[in-house]
Amino acid sequence: MEERVEKIQNILKKYGQEHILNHYETLDDIHQKELLHQIERIDFELISQLYHHTKKQEKQEKDKITPIDYLDKSKLYDDYKYYENIGKKAIKEGKLAAVTMAGGQGTRLGHDGPKGTYDIGLESHNSLFELLSDSLKEAGKKYDVTIPWFIMTSRENNEATIAFFEKNKYFGYQKDKNLFFFMQGQLPMIDTEGKILIGEDGLIKQAADGHGGIYESLVKNGMTQKMKQMGTEWIFIAGIDNCLAKMVDPVLMGLAIDKGVTVACKSVVKASPQEKVGVFCKRNGKPSVVEYSEITEEMAEARDENGELLYGESHILCNLFHINIVERMGEDPLPYHIAYKKATYINKDGNLVIPDSPNAYKFEAFLFDAFGQVDDMAVLRVKREEEFAPVKNADSAGVDCPSTARELYKKFHHLD
Questions:
Q1: What domains sit in the chain, N to C, each tagged with a CATH number?
Q2: Which residues contact residue 305 at a Cβ distance below 8 angstroms, ignoring those fewer than 6 apart?
Q3: Torsion angle (degrees, nearest 10) of CA 197, 199, 203, 205
Q4: Closest by Cα among 134, 115, 116, 114 to 124
């Protein structure tokens, strides 16, 4: 043990992070072991590079942003049945798996627990997890197949999520047979001097690495290997907070298969040119998503000859991938984006610091940054009221909140 600690001390000294062990002796055995384990898992070279990026303005080449082609699901007409039949065949053959990204907590909703356990206020009081499982099971009955369900949790909510599923008898699924849990990656938070923060528990304060970590997490946790053993060829990935997410969509699947693309994404048209959402585009000729902060007013207002916005296809985090491209995307981490956040921590004197303004950097990857690895993708516009009811904010926000999601869900399922 002493040899292990000494080796770790040398690593920390090399990177100027010796403070991490300042209060090691005050921890109990369990926390001591966990802290050492945390340190051994950290890529200090990466953390050093990320901190370096916070201190300099990256000189970037000017990207060429152009519109991307899309198909409107409601205007496919004869092609609708054509794509649907192709997708149905693949689904019935067991080639589809669903992945739900559920690593977040319900804190912003005033909910103490994993976000997926949140009740949006329906008469059934079903949680977000149950609403999605109902959708999957209904599709399974329709196509006479069980859609395997993979749920990405975080270290913060993994135990509570699994306990919730166990309490609810896994909503009819069978754990480790057609229901699998895996954890997303985390990265340490650092202060403005590049020092790794220590949390109230005496352990390293970490934050989830963003939804862009999904590819690496699927591969590193052996999930893509399990999928291949089950015959999976296509993976639908969506977030937990969209209670209308249609994870089993034969039209989208048929479109991807017919067009010979490895990525197919759903979009909803922007509510207005100024709506603050990322939109699909081509970036230097490759598929991408341009953030609203990157779009000029001229681009936001631009329309085609039919009066449609040139940059109007919102990315709603409902994406279908061929398993081979997920494995390729998961080989290396995506570039990390920097977020400046408020973080409570223990200082070098052992005192709790509760900041009233941002004081720390967290690093996260965005799922759509991987789109540039493919030459082309299919974008299918769907109706907002049929497939997009996000629960991101508290009701006080009045938008993308439990009350708006509840009304959309009730209307779509004719529950009024």
A1: 64-412 (3.90.550.10)
A2: none
A3: -50
A4: 134
Dihedral over Cα of 271, 273, 278, 283: its sign: positive
Token pair 């991987």: residue: 370
Q: What angle, 0 to 180 degrees and rounded to 10, lies between the N-to-C axes of helices 29-41 and 2-14?
A: 50
In the structure, what pLDDT confidence band is assigned to residue 61 with cuts at 50, 70 and 90?
low
Structure tokens at 64: 């060429």
**Which residues on neighbouring strands pair with residue 241, listed in sequence order?**
none
Looking at the predicted structure, is the pLDDT value of residue 173 above 90? yes
Contacts with 244 (C-beta within 8 Å, 6 or more apart), sequence order: 386, 387, 388, 389, 405, 408, 409, 412
- Kindly state the tokens that stand for 123: 């008469």
pTM for the predicted model, two decimal places? 0.91
Q: Are 385 and 246 in contact (CB under 8 A)?
A: no
Q: Decide: 114 and 104 in contact? Cβ < 8 Å.
A: yes
* Per-residue model confidence (pLDDT) at position 57: 58
Question: Within its chain, how far is the Cα of 63 from the centroid?
Answer: 25
CA 216 – CA 280 distance, rounded (Å) = 23
Q: Rounding to the nearest 10 degrees, give the CA dihedral for residues 135, 140, 146, 150.
A: -20
User: What is the CB-side half-sphere exposure of residue 24 using CA atoms within 13 A?
Assistant: 18
| Highest-confidence segment of 161-175, 267-281, 333-347 | 161-175
CA–CA dist 226, 230 (Å, integer): 6
The span from the CA of 76 to the CA of 55, in Å, is 49
Residue 149: alpha-carbon gap to chain centroid: 15
